[in-house]
Amino acid sequence: MRKLILSIFFIAVACVSASAQFQLGVKGGMNFAEFKIDNIRSNTKTGYHFGAFTSFKLGKIAVQPEVVFSQQGTEFRFDGQDFQSNFNYINVPVMFKFYLVGGLNVQVGPQFGFLTGATSTFDPIEQIETGESSIRDYYSESDVSLGLGVGWDLPINMNLEFRYNRGLTDISDQNIPATRNQVYQISLGFRLID
């Protein structure tokens, strides 16, 4: 899976880098994450994300690969008690940006996530309260999402973006309810090379 992701990334970079306008920058912002779970009501959990991006622009179209650390997870209520799950991912979105007017753009593209940590106050197998404990073994090491968003490339070397990442794959790895990530992100980026 990682080889496929790297291959897609390098092919995209090679195809557009020769004649494209190149940008390099850093970004960060807020996450509003939740799980889509079959039989448990999930609530939004606030976290953050930060990382780096490159962008290759040809006319009104750009390809923007990124590497982003992302705090995700959910808060939920089960059997009358409140619980919280904390998931950390290294995400690699490859966004295609379509420019409308000036720096205003719409974005769509795949995102590949790699789980780096998962803790919860609830054991999803035993369905009991545990205190803060690792549940990484219960979940897949990878995640695939579809990113949809809007952005604005400001003339002062800053980007403002709103993005929705909808999980396409079931991240549960054991005999637990199907679980998919859903994350809303608000990001502010700084273009270091423009």
Short descriptors:
194 residues; mainly beta; Porin; 8-stranded antiparallel barrel; 1 helix; 10 strands; elongated
Q: Your description of this structure?
A:
With 194 residues, this protein is mainly beta. The chain has one domain: Porin (Beta Barrel). Helices cover 8% and strands 70% of the residues. It is built from one helix and ten strands, in the order H-E-E-E-E-E-E-E-E-E-E. It has one helix at 2-17, and strands at 21-37, 42-43, 45-58, 61-78, 81-99, 104-123, 128-134, 142-154, 158-167, 179-193. Strands 1-3-4-5-6-8-9-10 form an eight-stranded antiparallel β-barrel. Strand 8 (142-154) and strand 9 (158-167) form a beta hairpin. The radius of gyration is 18 Å and the shape is elongated. The model has no long low-confidence stretch (mean pLDDT 88).
Which segments are poorly predicted (pLDDT under 50) over 5 or more consecutive residues? none
SSE run: HEEEEEEEEEE
CATH class: Mainly Beta
Assembly state of the chains shown: single chain
Q: What number of domains? A: 1
Order of strands, widest sheet? 1-3-4-5-6-8-9-10
Rg, rounded, reads 18 Å
With helices defined by DSSP (H or I, 4 residues minimum), what is the helix count?
1
Q: Main sheet? A: 8 strands, antiparallel, barrel
User: Per CATH, which architecture?
Assistant: Beta Barrel
Question: How much helix is in the residues?
Answer: under 10%
Average pLDDT for all residues: 88
Query: How much strand content do the residues show?
Result: over 45%
Give the class from helix and strand content and strand pairing: mainly beta
Give the number of DSSP strands.
10
| Cα shape | elongated
CATH topology: Porin
- The N- and C-terminal alpha carbons lie at a distance of 32 Å
